[in-house]
Design brief:
Chain A is of the alpha+beta class. In chain A, strands 1-2-3-9-4-8-7 form a 7-stranded mixed sheet, sandwiched between helices. Chain A folds into 2 domains: 2-234, Cytochrome Bc1 Complex, Chain A, domain 1 (2-Layer Sandwich); 247-426, Metalloenzyme, LuxS/M16 peptidase-like (Cytochrome Bc1 Complex, Chain A, domain 1, 2-Layer Sandwich). The first copy, chain A, is 43% helix and 20% strand. In chain A, a hairpin with a 5-residue loop joins β2 (11-17) and β3.
Chain lengths: 428, 428
Amino acid sequence: MRETQYDQLQEKLYYEKLENGLQIYIMPKPEFNQAFATFSTKYGSIDREFVVPGQNEPVIVPDGIAHFLEHKMFEEEEGDVFQDFAKYGASANAFTSFDMTTYLFSATDHLKENLETLLDFVQRPYLTDENVEKEKGIIGQEIQMYDDNPDWRSYFGVLQGLFKNHPIRIDIAGTIESIAKITKETLMDCYKTFYHPSNMLLFLVGPFEPEETVKLVADNQARKKISPQGEIKRIFPEEPTEAAHPRMEVKLSVSIPRCLFGFKEVNPGVSGRDLLLRELATAVGFDTLFSRSADLFNRLFNEGLIDKGFSWEYEVSEAYGFSVIGGNTKDPDRLMTIINEELAKVRQNGVAKESFETSRKKLIGKFLEGMDSPRYIARNFTSYRFKDADFFDSIKVLEELTHEQVNQRMAEHFEPKAQTVSLVLPNS
Amino acid sequence: MRETQYDQLQEKLYYEKLENGLQIYIMPKPEFNQAFATFSTKYGSIDREFVVPGQNEPVIVPDGIAHFLEHKMFEEEEGDVFQDFAKYGASANAFTSFDMTTYLFSATDHLKENLETLLDFVQRPYLTDENVEKEKGIIGQEIQMYDDNPDWRSYFGVLQGLFKNHPIRIDIAGTIESIAKITKETLMDCYKTFYHPSNMLLFLVGPFEPEETVKLVADNQARKKISPQGEIKRIFPEEPTEAAHPRMEVKLSVSIPRCLFGFKEVNPGVSGRDLLLRELATAVGFDTLFSRSADLFNRLFNEGLIDKGFSWEYEVSEAYGFSVIGGNTKDPDRLMTIINEELAKVRQNGVAKESFETSRKKLIGKFLEGMDSPRYIARNFTSYRFKDADFFDSIKVLEELTHEQVNQRMAEHFEPKAQTVSLVLPNS
């Protein structure tokens, strides 16, 4: 077992890799009541084309299958996973993102029993023709519900405006048409490929005892006799550097237009500490422009062009990178004119030195706040780990971050040709 | 300063009441990075009729004025409150509910400076005819946005279905028409009445040193020379025991109907430990019926009648009490038929003993988990304190809770005459 000490955070992280390839990370937090356990596979909605280990030809699977599989994992031949967790006072959940699927529980007691339940249900698929058909109805309803949601529609409008070919432009749940094509067999192909322990990571935070816990997991895995598996080859299409469409529009019954805009990252392809640096430099830059204490935010707010819900996010990985910024506005055109004038100035002159310092400190504070929350730690740790980055290095990266780096980042990111604007407009 | 020790939680709570009436509660959490400070007034959307201390006649103020005042408090004669907080690495926010308005910051550093900023901006209204007019546009936009939201509409559909007269049936933000009537003068009347320190509470959780912090607050308040104020007389209308309307319906452009139902509490009028007992007995009962491990939930889920978003809430106070339960469904009528059959059985036979035990333990776990989160603690503590209840007693109340009490609670609450169903249906 490897032990890493983070002096500044006063935290320790334990690491073990089992024979079947499963990686285990444990951050003991004995002073916490809550334990949080996540069992994740590096498998999300963008993994639509890949070579099944042992085969030669790539396969293309129906859109939305990773999310579909997540749903099906909760079904058991006998009984119900939620009841198994409830019996020992735990709550369980799961979510599927662009590039990972996570199963989790939180509990204050009976950590061993709950951990066994977590490992066992995720490693025991129960698929029948009937239960796959039934799920299509349930997920179809979920898809329709998101279709009603103006925020979700404007968000995917940005991704569809930015990306021409990359599967990140496709809704995580797929479409009614794509999920109709899902069968028990394709689900099992995906399961065998991506739910192999060598593609998975177990992260535990809370009052866990490291030695004992690793032994419990190792014994559980040894009983299952899972043979090793080669690397998974994922195939992604070529993606041009400019945005696919400068403007996307849809009409829904809303009273106030939603206006989101975003930029495609011209050079993604980062991982490890470079990825952390790129995300944090972008975050600091965005905070100087779009947080509630920013001059630009206040100018727009005082003109009544934006409201408190104005927000932003940024994500980058090996295969894609993008920002999504915006909210409600009574006048999308005027809003975008002012913002684009300001972003052109930022590309030229950078952000104010004083704002940079304030935002950098604010982000250090936010990170430290997050370290109080098992949920926050668990969610971020695995996502960065799958990108070869150590989330706990964030504070060091922020401390070493320079004004110059943020200015460079903003100049690089705010490329007009890589921009799209996505509008949801009232339909009357 | 009074000190209370909660042995089971291994927490201490410090209390002081200042001469001007302000109550201060501090829960030191030296092991936490994050500090969370809330400054709250017992004043929310339901306080529409009251006697201003020193006057004789009651006044009725426009709907939505508490929320309007919350918005205006962030405006300063010079500069911007968010910048003052950002300078010291803090994030600020505020919210208005039915019966309280809370201003808060979270920070990991410069707690003294941020605390002074919080106290000063909330105690320094800056209202002009111009800035009040301008705010009507901003809030009007917010109201329209909520009007688009099927979840919000179905939620207030329940409250309007349940309550005939009580102002809880009115949207917290008011309406475009009601906020048009708000003036600088009515805002100041409300401010003087409800923002007097004797109607307010400061709650701090995180790495605060109690003695030092109380001295800082006392000095800050002494400088402001605020004279004492008599009690505020609030006036609420009579409310019948049965629901105002058995069914509420609205059409919006949704693909899946929303179906929420709820019950009006026939006998609210509880406070203190009785209130805590009533809320927790209801919560345990609802968990046995509507959580993801419940038989009823699973039956409805497997029939495709509900999805994962099915949820419930319950609230009771001196003046009102109600539940709101439900989510999306493809068949509201069939859903309500099955649920009402089941609830009739529960009134007769109670909930299963084993489910009661599981849910009770689960809620104890949830409470302990929450104790790890300054945000969760702060949000709940003040709300209960304003109802003379001690949130930290929750665990004791849960431990002493009996199966019989939960069964009685369910029999009392699920009164068919006090039920309403609120539907948001597709408009095509």
